[in-house]
Amino acid sequence: MPDQFNVPSVILIGGGVRHEAAAQLKRLGIHRVLLVTDTEMMRLGPAREISSELEEAGLDVTIFDGVQADPTDKNVLAGLNLYQERDCQGLVAVGGGSPIDAAKAISALARNPAPLSHYAGYHKLPFPGVPLIAIPTTAGTGSEVTKVTIITDTDRDVKMMILSVNLLPQVALVDYELTLSMPPDLTAAVGVDTLTHGIEAYVSRKAHATTNPLALSCIEHVARHLKTAYAEPGNHEARAGMMVAACQGGMAFANSSVCLVHGMSRPIGALFHVPHGLSNAVLLPSITRFSWQSATGRYATVARILGACSHAADDMTAAESLVAFLEQLNSDLNLPRLRDCRGVDEVRFRENLIKMASDALASGSPQNNPRVPTVDQIIALYEEAW
Ligand SMILES: NC(=O)c1ccc[n+]([C@@H]2O[C@H](COP(=O)([O-])OP(=O)(O)OC[C@H]3O[C@@H](n4cnc5c(N)ncnc54)[C@H](O)[C@@H]3O)[C@@H](O)[C@H]2O)c1
Ligand SMILES: [Fe+2]
């Protein structure tokens, strides 16, 4: 298999680039557009602001704000109905990973027959979706530059991972100013999601020469900016740095793959609605402890970039130091343990351990981990994170 690298054909990065949305839609020949967002983005303003700008530019805008956090197949169908009813020609997504992922799925179903579950897994979507401009407001998932969408199948309580080049947005407008409104707990959770993308992209069995520098740069930006963005929400330099990290992390992982942390994190999100970044954060230290001896040099490099150890430390010492560093990072960012996350119930957690472990393995992500676990080892890792 050749190394593959896919990203949107236009990525604009910097303060104020959200104002380019109308010009990009016109370039793509789109006049009737569905703006996909959530109620919080409407309340806070960015979705309304962008919609007004598009209307002032003479475009016909319909707003769909019915996306919930961890979007579902039902959200996608509701958006698709509106898209078809209004005879739209393309999509703009404004929000975190949830609205962007929902918009990708709407885009896909506008050109490919339902149900979405037919396309779960790798490279199963036959035709390109309709054009999508993604404008992220978290830093973050990097979904604006990835060929991945994560949608909950409500019949099975599973977060489906769908990866296809046919899901790529045409344009990503990566404007850190939209992240200034994120409260510290959201900044922390989505920031650790970004860090997890960088680490997993770098240690993945599918990492390659084009994804490696992006993954390492992502980690370096997180090392420099996450704690400041958390402590000082209005710090432009830190917000800009984390936005670059999120975008690079997305480009890296989508082309090399996430691994065991994401594989195990999705079932927690599907069952307990723990925010995605948080469900990664609670797993990251234990899974690093489980994995590092299978890719010691790579984990050592990550540890040195993060400042977990001295640059002179040998690989074994450096890689091992990463576990304690990640535990300390969670604590510095006031991220709770799994048992303390809102919505997580111990009885339901134990009843569902086998389902969660088999759903994790079925997603395909754990198979890219440096050390590939069995179902029993995944259950033990869930217990350890508890
Ligand atoms: N497609 C991909 O490549 C990819 C990668 C990683 C994660 N994901 C998925 O993305 C989803 C998570 O996305 P997310 O972490 O960005 O969060 P989100 O989109 O679910 O948003 C979480 C909450 O934060 C609010 N919010 C968003 N931006 C804000 C801002 N600037 N200020 C204040 N509040 C804001 C939202 O309104 C929402 O209430 C999950 O479903 C996850 O599985 C997708
Ligand atoms: Fe993620």
In short:
With 386 residues, this protein is an alpha/beta fold.
Topology order in helix (H) and strand (E) letters = EHEHHEHEHEEEEEHHHHHHHHHH
Total number of helical segments? 15
Spatial separation of the terminal alpha carbons: 38 Å
Write out the distinct hetero groups bound to the structure: nicotinamide-adenine-dinucleotide, fe (ii) ion
CATH fold description of the largest domain: Dehydroquinate synthase-like, alpha domain
Low-confidence residue ranges: none
Could you say what the CATH architecture of the largest domain is? Answer: Up-down Bundle
Structural class: alpha/beta
Strands of the largest sheet, in order across it? 1-9-6-4-2-3
Explain what the structure shows:
With 386 residues, the protein is of the alpha/beta class. It has two domains: 10-179, Rossmann fold (3-Layer(aba) Sandwich); 184-385, Dehydroquinate synthase-like, alpha domain (Up-down Bundle). It has helices spanning 21-27, 39-44, 46-56, 73-85, 97-109, 184-203, 211-231, 236-256, 260-272, 276-291, 296-306, 315-332, 346-351, 353-362, 375-385, and strands spanning 10-13, 32-36, 60-64, 90-95, 121-122, 132-136, 148-153, 158-163, 171-174. The strands form two sheets. A six-stranded parallel beta sheet has the order 1-9-6-4-2-3, with helices on both faces. The model has no long low-confidence stretch (mean pLDDT 97).
